[in-house]
């Protein structure tokens, strides 16, 4: 396998124009704006084909030749987002950054996201130039203005970053790496409470090379990534700032790829963020950002801009973007390195799964049974009492309540609940009262009954359950519906998709130990063998490729697949997710893609499923109920964190805005809190 070369050279999409003549450019712009109306195409084509240094020469030539201020004329002739974009392109980078910071801290409220983005991503020279430009443009001290507008540890870290004194030596002291990793661990995971000052000192001052090694060492000590520790130990704007710093230490292009995606996804566009990033990175690393965007979102930045914007504004942004990217082309070195590292992190990190529902203290099944009976007796139903009991007991405790209800009162609790409740609240409460195996069996049945099949539900359940859970579900399905789940799948699906589901429903995936020694010779041989099979599959005809993928993805253990997918990047310079997206289609593609996503980060996969259940018009209540019920005692806290990270809004907020009444109240209890 070839080693991936480090992508240290930043590469912009905008470079200096050859045969540059500032006087000729000034005249072209003057002619484009004189008379009635203006030639916007001429303006945007010229400005986006010059680098910033050349634009400054054009500004000077315009004033010399015509006695007018070019920026004032542009502001007069242009309007809206297009004007903001063109005028911002004409500012020198330091003055552009200074204005963004000024706008973020002056007026009503503070734009913390802008402060975080700019200060976490700029190097020492850029920081110093921005501070000087701020002083010259606004006559005040940037540090003093930031201190006046922020507070707490968030303020302290911003002040540290504003000094622009991060170490820049490429020489790394191995002893200091180990010491810093140990100090970060002692400041967070190893104690009650968090020593924020240690995080600020180390993350705010050490060199990029040093910190990358510290993060690797930290994972060996803590068995969680530094990002996961920050998410669990810190909160609010300080948490978001520290995560941004870590992301920029790992990869500035990936940080900006994520920011660009969030600026355009969903309803509406965060145009200020989009403009700021497209301008500030166009001469530095836009080509790497494009690659990272494609790696992360399986869609080119070019096409996302094209779909999300319009008119001259769109055309200007596309010029800055610099071109479209073939979906499954080979990586540039920077993106290949990141893809490899992402799989390495997934393989190394032992995620501590955290539920949101735990067993209730001082549990009394008889008292709960009596309280539930009282809530349903007579006219009307006390839904609040039912919700408070059912949603705040573990599943094992709910099974005790079911049994006690029957033995004490001679009644079937499930029948009583069904007769007293209705619609989504009834479905949710009944789902909580079933055992996990009964609930999964019922969800599989619902996905296949009636007209049409919910293939996404079948995939989600079979991909994410352990062998033991699948076998328990098989038994529950047979008991409830008097036929095997495999028979039901075969009668309701067809082709290779059916074969994939049948393979998964066997519950026979290899299950290597969770802490498998990576240096174990047999495991390495096995990984290499699978890697060769996977590479051969990618070169096969479409049908053969899909069958070979099935034999690997449906049978190998998750730890094994993580290692295989990591080495696949090194071996082929491509990512397995992109191969699946490019070469496959329909339900087969969706099934394989779900397996890869679950192998990489299962809570992130569920966060995406929840987002899709609630975004846009209407709600997929069946998916929402299925995930909230099935994950509440496993990893719903982790899912919440991934949801917030991916969508810049909490799961709690989405549920609050997308549901109502007692149904919403129950879901919010299961959610377990705001983030």
UniProtKB/TrEMBL annotation:
Q: Which GO terms describe its cellular component?
A: melanosome; mitochondrion; nucleus; plasma membrane; vesicle membrane
Q: Name one GO biological process term.
A: calcium ion transport
Record remark: domains: A pair of annexin repeats may form one binding site for calcium and phospholipid.
Give the similarity note: Belongs to the annexin family.
Q: What UniProt keywords apply to this chain's record, in alphabetical order? A: Annexin, Calcium, Calcium/phospholipid-binding, Cytoplasm, Repeat
Alphabetically, the GO molecular function entries are: calcium ion binding; calcium-dependent phospholipid binding; phosphatidylserine binding
Task: Please name the SMART domains in this protein's record.
Answer: ANX
- Report what the protein is called: Annexin
Q: What does this protein do?
A: May associate with CD21. May regulate the release of Ca(2+) from intracellular stores.
Q: Does the keyword Membrane apply?
A: no
PANTHER family in alphabetical order: ANNEXIN, ANNEXIN A6
What does the UniProt entry say about where the protein is found?
A: Cytoplasm; Melanosome
Tell me which species this is from: Tetraodon nigroviridis (Spotted green pufferfish)
